[in-house]
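Bench notes, afternoon.
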Amino acid sequence: MLKKSKTYHLEIQTHGRNPYGVIRTSYRESGKVKHENLCRLSGLSLDQLKVIQATIQNKNKVVLGKDFKILSSWEYGASYATYSILKDLELHKAIYSRFSDDWVKSSIAVIVGRLVYQGSKLSLSNCCSYSTLWEICGIEGEIDVKTHCYDAMDKLLERQEAIQKILANKHLQEGALVLYDITSVYMEGEYATSDLVEFGYNRDQKRGHEQIVICLLCNKDGCPIAVEVLKGNTKDDTTVLDKIDELRHKYGFEKIIFVGDRGMITQTKYEQINHEAVKVVSALNHKEILDLCDKGVIQMNLFDENNIVEVIDENIRYMLCKNPVMAKKEAKTRQELLKKTTDELDKIMASARKTKNSKAIRAGKIVNKYKMAKFIIFEGSDENLSYKVDTDKVITESSLDGCYVIFTDASNADISAAEAVKNYKNLFKVEQAFANLKTVQLEIRPIYHKTDDRIKCHVFICMLAYYVMWNMRQRLKSLTDADGVGENRKYSFDYILENLKAIRRETVNFMGAKTKVISTPNEEQDHILNLLGVKL
């Protein structure tokens, strides 16, 4: 294939009344004349463009040499794409109707910045030296962390209920299914004046740390709708009735199907729910399954690896399921934990050394550590202690390996057995949201704020950033679904953002004339932008 040398020229075009230039190269390849755009010159007068045009025609040999310099470069692609998605989702309108207000623009910059850069609000306020984020969001000039971050956060928090109502009405319908779960986030530092930061059950296994509890509502697909920050010692089941009340009275849904994790909807809470308006989908724990077996409602031989078996008792539908992979995993885990427990108990029983704590106290700590107390029977007390494994209890527990029961009071017309099981399993989507919030993707922690309102708003900002991220992932689904697995996987969300960050806005000095140029996306970047529906 014969390719001749390139020539360069400047085409002068207009957009409205504003002239701009496009530097192009032309060359002949296999007998055909081809063109390639190099960059765009804007912000110059028509006379300046004509001088550059004439210079190129006479001196094209130096166009890409000393007379063409990149003076500075800022990240553009990831910030612009995320901002464009946020606007396309009309989240800016939900934040406040007057988008021109600076606090609204600043709030948007903080939300976009949480997804693109994470880190503290102070670091975000100083990103102007390497990013066009604030400028893209409409904030010109010097960025002040108090004005553009903290003051904006205070106003955004005032709008939280209104924003969440808009999201709920956009992504839920009357009688819709809602996914609900809670998590904890541990804190570091002093929070002496906080009403939120307390010691409680830590789901991250971070003992010795105070924490907050976060509640999250999502639609059936996992799209986040609303978030709330509660005291760190809040128990799961105590939040259920408040969330149902929020959906019905704050957001205006008369009928809903509420999906909550096992243990969250206790018998007491279940009885307090208005079941004319609210139907429930949840799961039984092992004790509740054994109780149903004792009552003769279900039998262990009904659990099937290939089919969902439905049993109805007193208007409650029970879906019996069995997962062979889970069965092997549960059996292996119990065996390992039981062995660790008995090994350490044997050492305690054989020890003749006097310690501060008696054998009974030390043995109690061991069975609690491995959560094996229900399988161990102790005899004697203090130093005259012995134990044995309750083999009958182990056999009974083993019979439930891989077995689980989903229950609902919704009719088959509202939700089929297969849909009930599927939607309960969809709670992993809420767990996925928590994983993104709590890891490097959104970095909900460390939380640098010390007042309760700022802590609440920080969590709300992280949820809104995840809302944008969730919608971006839906648009990129064809790309990620076709991706490899394991070491062959390429298109993580991190990779996509970093790839877009390589699209730069550069200040170029071209033969004495300065202009700002957006680098041309490569083929991969162009494909990602097309899937996102973003045009630079």
